[in-house]
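User: Sequence for Putative DNA binding, helix-turn-helix domain containing protein below. Tokens please.
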Amino acid sequence: MPSITQVERDRRELLLPEAARKYLEDGDIDEIAKEYDIPKKSLYYHFGKMGISRKKSAKETKIVLKEISKAREQELSIQGEKLVTIAIGIGGVIANRYLPLVDAMMADGMTLEYIAEHIMDWFENKTAIEQKVSNLEIDNKNLEDTIQAAYAMAEPNFRYLLQTRILDDFAKRALQYRAAGIRVNPKKMTQALYYDLVTLDTGIDNFIENVM
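Assistant: Structure tokens for Putative DNA binding, helix-turn-helix domain containing protein:
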């Protein structure tokens, strides 16, 4: 069966007992599928798992219908208890902490329903934004890891390139000064070359920061 979301799965679980009752009462399966927005194949699949069949005897059908009704009542009871628990929990917090604010909002013509929807819409958007930020942070970390890995692979070749450039620059400077007839101190030039090479050996970042 195709994958469905948890929200859709919960919706179907809530509707299946009533759909099964109508099916056992000789309801048209196509109409049932359309009414509850559940594919016909899914209905047959779940009915089969529940042992529901029109071929059973009248007595068996009555027992199944009774169990279905009982299951539906229990489901509604659980849903009702859950709603009451949520309402009391949220309402208690609002009453204890934010009553002056709620009074002010109601004085402006806002209903409790509007206030609750407004708060939950804000929280829903906040949660979505936090998730996007979290995803961006993960993407950024992955990008940083990729760059570090690429840098580690490229470093030996880059170091060799910089060494070649240092030696090339040293040779060019020596030839330029000599061509211009300027006397230079070979010892100091060699020390400068040595300093650049040593700085490069301590790390490419140090070399770029202190020499280039």
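The chain has a mean pLDDT of 78.
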